[in-house]
Amino acid sequence: MRKTLFSFVIAFLLAAMVSPMAFAATTYSTTLSAAVNATQLTITVAATTNMVASSQTVTSLIFCDGELMKINRITSTTLSVTRGYGNTNAGAVPYAGTHPSGATCYFGQQGGNNSSGGPFITQNPYPGSVCSTANYPFLPLVNTSNNTLWYCENSRWMSPTSGVQPNVISGLGATRTLTTRESGSLILLDRSAGITITLPAPVVGLYYDFVASVTVVASGVYKFSTATQGTDFFVGPIISDDSDSGEALVGFSCNGTTHDNVSMNGGTTGGLVGSFYRVKAISSTLWHIEGTDIGSGSVATPCSTS
After folding, report:
1. pLDDT over 70 for what percent of the chain?
2. Mind listing the pLDDT tens digit for each residue in 214-251?
3. What does the chain look like in DSSP terms, one character per residue?
């Protein structure tokens, strides 16, 4: 009896260790190697690792730019597909009948988020509600009805594509590269020695709020940099509050053509406690920036090329 019980306990522990419900795996994805028009029944992808074709027992799906497709056959990196599966309009969202080369596609099996299947859902989680990654074998969830991705971040549901992210980020350290998952976050500039923040590649609708909760000292800077210098730029107005000259206000503008950095030095270009900025992606190469920058001395533009 004791041996049987011992064997049962060992088996249970081993099962728990390998259970797919013990942690969330990354949702499988690939990219299109060639553009897809609205009617073709084969698509070419960069890789098919972890991908299976549909069978009598499995319905295998791939989701690209608002369109769900059934994978009927896999030949190297070419997929034979059924277009517009699950009442999704073949290629119509958001590319009006086509999918561009390089587009990201998510794939898995039909049946929602299950241990052997995929990430597909048709209803959004409630934004900001409690979640646990242990309960979802594949993340992010992919809502095929409205083309949104949903992450369980900090035990809360959020979606960068819908602008939902109830999150405050602090203690960044000297450098930090933001992710698309963190879109919508309030980010505290709280390191007096300065912080250099690199934004992700701009995707229309991503946005971040920044507020200086600590003044940066003269030997440091609070700095925002675009991901691809010389290609991605800042555009928009920044109001500088000259705090030691009767609160005089001076306006500056990032030009959208050469300004790929915004730098606050704790003095003339701002960065004093209370300074506030919002950056929002308005195209694949432009971040709109606006804010009230609190500085001292003869205030100057924080928009820069380096």
Report:
1. 83
2. 999 988 999 999 999 999 999 999 999 888 766 678 88
3. -HHHHHHHHHHHHHHHHH-GGGSPEEPPEEEBSS-B-SS-SEEEBS--TT-----SS--EEEEETTEEEEEEEEETTEEEEETTGGG--TTTTTTTT-B-TT-EEEEEESSSB-TTSB-EESSPPPTT-B--GGG-SEESEEETTTTEEEEEETTEEEBGGGTB---EE----SEEE--GGGTT-EEEE--TT-EEEEPPPP-TT-EEEEEESSPPPTT--EEEE-SSTTTSEEEEEEEEEETTTTTEEEEEEEESSS--EEEE-SBTTB--TT-EEEEEE-SSSEEEEEEEEEE-SS----EE--
Domain with CATH 2.60.120.640 in the chain: 168-304
Token pair of 281 as six digits: 């992606």
**55 has pLDDT over 50:** yes
pTM of the predicted model as reported, rounded to 2 decimal places: 0.51
Residues 58/24, Cβ–Cβ less than 8 Å = no
Superfamily (CATH) of domain 168-304? gp9 (2.60.120.640)
How many C-beta neighbours within 10 Å does residue 122 have?
12
Report the alpha-carbon distance of residue 196 to residue 204 in Å, rounded: 23
Q: Which of 295, 297, 286 is nearest to 221 (CA)?
A: 295
d(CA 73, CA 82): 10
Residue position matching structure tokens 């249970």: 12
Q: Residue 40 carries which side chain, given as an amino acid letter?
A: Q
User: What pLDDT band is residue 103 in, cutting at 50, 70 and 90?
Assistant: confident
